[in-house]
C-alpha cells in the first residue's frame, strides 16, 4: 500500500466511469486501468457494471465476451497490483459456454497482489424477455468475501445493478456476514431516482454500508444515470456523484456497522 492504513478504516474510491459508443473496448480498458493504477492511496476501489463491454450493448456481447483469463481480467489484475489496493473491477461479459445462452454478467474482485479473490455471476438478469435473460445464464450463489488481512477487517457482499430491487438477496448477504454491500451498475437516467432510493433502503434495513458505483455517459442510445453514492448503516449519504465522470473518495469506519446494530438492534427482531 502507498500509505499506512488507518486502523479500522477503509479508504474507498468509487470510480464512476463515463464512456460512449465511439471508444474502442481495448482503449477503454487501458484508460480505466490507468485510472485505477493512479488510486495509490486507496484500500478498496470499485468500478461499474459492464463498463468495458457495454451495459446495454447486448448486440455486441457475444463478440466481446471473454473468459476469466482474458484481456479484461489481466488488465484489472495488473491495475490492482499497480494501485496496491483491493479492486472490485465491476463486471464483464464472461463466456461460460459455447451453447446459447453461454454468457454471464460476472463481477470480479482482485487483491493487491493481482490475485482473483472472488467472482459473482449476477443472479437477477434485467431485460424481461430480451437482453440479459435471453443471452446470459443467471448466477446461483450468494457471494461474500473478507478483505485481505493487511486491510481493515470487513466482509464484503457482492450484488449487481438489478439485484438492488430484490431485498431478500441482501438479507442473505447479511446472513453471510456482510458489512459492506458493493453494487456496481449500468443504471439508466430514466430510473435513477430508484437507484438512489433503493440503495439507501438497503443500507437502512440491513444496517450496512452500501457502495453504489454507476456508469455515466450515453451508450447504445441509453443515457446513463450516474449518481453513484456511498450510504452509511444509518442511511446517511456520505458522498454522492452527479451524472458525469467522477471519482468519489471517502474513508469508512467499519465499526459503525456494529455500533448501528447495537444502538438499534432491529435485525434481532426478524421473525422470517
Layout of helices and strands, plus pairs?
Elements: E1 9-16, H1 25-37, E2 44-46, H2 61-64, H3 71-83, E3 86-95, E4 103-110, E5 116-121, H4 132-135, E6 144-146, E7 155-158, H5 167-175, E8 180-184, H6 192-206, E9 209-213, E10 218-219, E11 222-223, E12 229-231, E13 237-240, E14 246-253, H7 255-263
Parallel strand pairs: 1-2, 2-3, 7-8, 8-9
Antiparallel strand pairs: 1-14, 3-4, 4-5, 6-7, 9-12, 10-11, 12-13
Helix pairs in contact: 1-3
From the structure above, extract its key features.
Nitrilase/N-carbamoyl-D-aminoacid amidohydrolase, six-stranded mixed β-sheet, 272 residues, disordered N terminus, alpha/beta
Describe the structure.
By secondary structure, the chain is of the alpha/beta class. It has one domain: Nitrilase/N-carbamoyl-D-aminoacid amidohydrolase, CATH 3.60.110.10. The chain is 25% helix and 26% strand. The chain contains seven helices and 14 strands. It has a six-stranded mixed sheet with strand order 5-4-3-2-1-14. A six-stranded mixed sheet has the order 6-7-8-9-12-13, with helices on one face. A hairpin with a 5-residue loop joins strand 12 and strand 13 (237-240). Helix 1 packs parallel to helix 3. The longest helix is centred in the last third of the chain and has 15 residues, at 192-206. It is globular, with a radius of gyration of 17 Å.
Q: Gyration radius, to the nearest Å?
A: 17 Å
Q: What would you give as the CATH superfamily?
A: Carbon-nitrogen hydrolase
Poorly predicted runs are: 1-5
Strand content: 25-35%
How many domains, in number, for the residues? 1
What's the CATH architecture?
4-Layer Sandwich
User: How many beta-strand elements?
Assistant: 14
Amino acid at each position: 500500500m502507498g500509505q499506512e492504513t488507518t486502523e479500522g478504516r477503509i479508504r474507498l474510491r468509487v470510480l464512476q466511469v463515463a464512456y460512449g459508443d465511439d471508444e474502442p473496448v481495448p482503449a477503454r480498458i487501458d484508460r480505466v486501468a490507468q485510472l485505477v493504477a493512479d488510486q495509490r492511496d486507496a484500500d478498496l476501489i470499485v468500478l461499474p457494471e459492464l463498463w468495458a463491454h457495454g451495459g446495454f450493448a447486448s448486440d455486441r456481447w457475444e463478440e466481446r465476451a471473454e473468459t476469466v483469463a482474458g484481456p479484461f481480467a489481466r488488465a484489472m489484475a495488473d491495475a490492482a497490483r499497480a494501485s496496491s489496493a483491493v479492486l472490485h473491477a465491476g463486471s464483464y461479459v464472461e463466456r461460460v459456454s459455447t451453447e446459447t445462452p453461454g454468457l454471464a454478467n460476472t463481477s470480479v474482485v482482485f487483491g493487491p497482489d493481482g490475485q482473483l479473490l472472488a467472482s459473482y455471476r449476477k443472479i437477477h438478469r434485467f431485460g424481461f424477455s430480451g437482453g440479459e435473460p435471453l443471452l446470459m445464464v443467471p448466477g446461483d450463489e450468494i457471494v461474500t468475501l473478507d478483505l485481505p488481512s493487511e486491510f481493515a477487517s470487513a466482509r464484503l457482499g457482492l450484488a449487481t445493478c438489478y439485484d438492488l430491487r430484490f431485498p431478500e438477496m441482501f438479507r442473505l448477504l447479511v446472513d453471510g456476514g456482510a458489512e459492506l454491500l458493493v453494487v456496481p451498475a449500468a443504471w439508466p437516467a430514466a430510473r435513477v431516482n430508484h437507484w438512489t432510493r433503493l440503495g439507501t433502503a438497503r443500507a437502512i434495513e440491513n444496517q450496512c454500508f452500501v457502495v453504489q458505483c454507476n456508469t455515466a455517459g450515453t451508450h447504445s442510445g441509453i443515457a446513463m444515470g450516474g449518481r453513484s453514492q456511498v450510504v452509511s448503516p444509518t442511511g446517511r449519504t456520505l458522498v454522492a456523484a452527479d451524472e458525469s465522470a467522477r471519482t468519489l473518495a471517502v474513508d469508512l469506519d467499519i465499526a459503525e456497522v456494529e455500533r448501528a446494530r447495537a444502538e438499534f438492534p432491529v435485525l434481532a427482531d426478524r421473525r422470517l
